């Protein structure tokens, strides 16, 4: 299931069967005082692993833990490589991966990566590489709020500082966007939270993860219906 666990002959043998490579992309950025910096990466990796567990013909690449997180500047621990570097990284990574794997899906866990990844995918597809982008959509709080807290509680409850969870700026995202573009998250939320993480629970998070995995599998079936017709792995 994981490319990094294979030898090169094993990877070649898998590629010969027409497998699809899933590449999780996230970020290393602040998620309030209660969630780890790896939250976006953790979620992307979990969605990929869940899909590969349920359906044959999927391999998961090592996650890319850095993204375009400039909006989180000013919070300790945020490590952003910016849009230009992210686009270059993804393009070169997929060019390399396409030498082995004919189909690649970027599974993105950080909203700030989306526009950059769309540009990268457009370029790669113009080069006749079969690369797709999947970004799970969640209703609810936009950042470090109830949604992401619930998912992290389902994944790694020991890494969530629930005693530090507190509300942040709870205004709707459309209202916040102009302020975020002008001054970043720090300008609207001193604790880094957009939403309210209090009351989140692991059951809710497990359901959200399940929904994201189901959505990814549905897109895979839509992109490559001949594989979908073969049925689930288990």
Automatic annotation (TrEMBL):
Q: Which InterPro entries would you find in this protein's record?
A: Creatininase-like_sf (IPR024087), Creatininase/forma_Hydrolase (IPR003785), MftE (IPR023871)
Report if keyword Zinc is assigned.
yes
Report the cofactors.
Zn(2+)
Query: Any keyword Zinc?
Result: yes
Q: Which UniProt keywords apply?
A: Hydrolase, Metal-binding, Zinc
Family membership: Belongs to the creatininase superfamily.
Entry-linked NCBIfam families:
mycofact_creat (TIGR03964)
Q: What is the designated name of this protein?
A: Mycofactocin biosynthesis peptidyl-dipeptidase MftE
